[in-house]
Amino acid sequence: ALVALVSTPALAMEPKQIQAALDRAYEKYKGLKEGANADYIPVLAKVDSNIYGIALVTPDGKVYTAGDVKSEVSIQSISKVFTAAKVMEQSGPDQIFGTIGVDATGMRFNSIVSIEMSKQAFGGPEMNPLVNPGAIAATSMVKGNSRDDIFNTILSFYSDFAGRKLTVNQEVFKSESDTNQRNQAIGMLMYAYGYIKDNPQQATDIYTEQCSVSVNAKDLATMAGTLANGGLNPVTQKAVMKPDNVPKLLAVMATAGLYDDSGKWLWRTGLPGKSGVGGGIIAVSPGKFGIAVISPPLDEAGNSVRAQKAIADISNALGGNPY
Ligand code: DON
């Protein structure tokens, strides 16, 4: 499958047209003043709302950018994709399918009711690794000899996707650790119901740290580009994940990547995507491109306003929608 992907012409468009699509979307939404920074994690409210960067990576390893692709934000929920990927790599994809589930909850990303509904109304895992309960459970499944060993395994896996050594924003980690009582409760409830086998406090703590990893738009686009390229990082040429696991991960992103607005997103773009409350969104057009936009102001569902619009425009201009 990988050979087929790599030998297919990356995009029917010339580099100049790709760059023009990025530039157009950048200009079009630069002045947009909709949405607001997340503030339930106090330090996120202080991030510059004007940060706005676009990056796109093609399977031939070319990187296209527009705007600010140097400023870093915390990866937040986009991390959930790559931790789920690590669990699939270590324990096989059925570990996600069978013990967390791959269905949309239709509820907010930190819904406690969704845990109750999954357990009681349907009698099995009607959850997914991209909402907080499923993500904390996924983190609990990453193997390692100690708390720090597990975290370092996660961080170096993310770094392989990004093609550079990523680091943690300690201020964000502290701010969220001081205020994440709701996630601690979610971790404990997931433990009570058997999704988490051991040490839920540690799982929530590692999850909180993974959400605090610092990324710029180019990092995120390279991570998405690796998924667009069957798990082979197109910039570094490192095989980061098994090609067979990629379509499964993309399926979960298509189902639940933008939370309760995932259907609207798929309607507009046809692309598996993932958002984070730091303001980033990634999207993947398999065999064609990985794209990322960072812009901190969010809509009601917790998704970056500019990032949603810019990615939709660019993908539509480039024929990214596989449907
Ligand atoms: O657990 C949290 O609430 C955050 N660390 C991540 C949430 C998030 O990014 C949801 N995104 N739209």
Overview of this protein structure:
The protein is of the alpha+beta class. It has two domains: 2-76 and 214-318, 3-Layer(aba) Sandwich (Beta-lactamase), CATH 3.40.710.10; 79-211, Beta-lactamase (3-Layer(aba) Sandwich), CATH 3.40.710. It contains 14 helices and seven strands. The strands form two sheets. A five-stranded antiparallel beta sheet has the order 2-1-7-6-5. Helix 3 (79-91) packs parallel to helix 6 and helix 8 packs across helix 10. It starts with a helix and ends in a 5-residue tail after the last helix. The mean pLDDT is 94. The structure holds 6-diazenyl-5-OXO-L-norleucine (DON). Residues 76-77, 109-110, 132, 176, 183, 211, 275-277, 302 line the site of 6-diazenyl-5-OXO-L-norleucine (DON).
What is this structure, in a nutshell?
The protein is α+β, with helices and mostly antiparallel strands. It is 48% helix and 9% strand.
Count the strands? 7
- Provide the succession of SSEs: HHEEEHHHHHHHHEHHHEEEH
Radius of gyration from the alpha-carbon trace, in angstroms: 18 Å
Q: For this entry, what is the oligomeric state of its chains?
A: single chain
Which stretches are low in confidence, meaning pLDDT under 50 for 5 or more residues running?
none
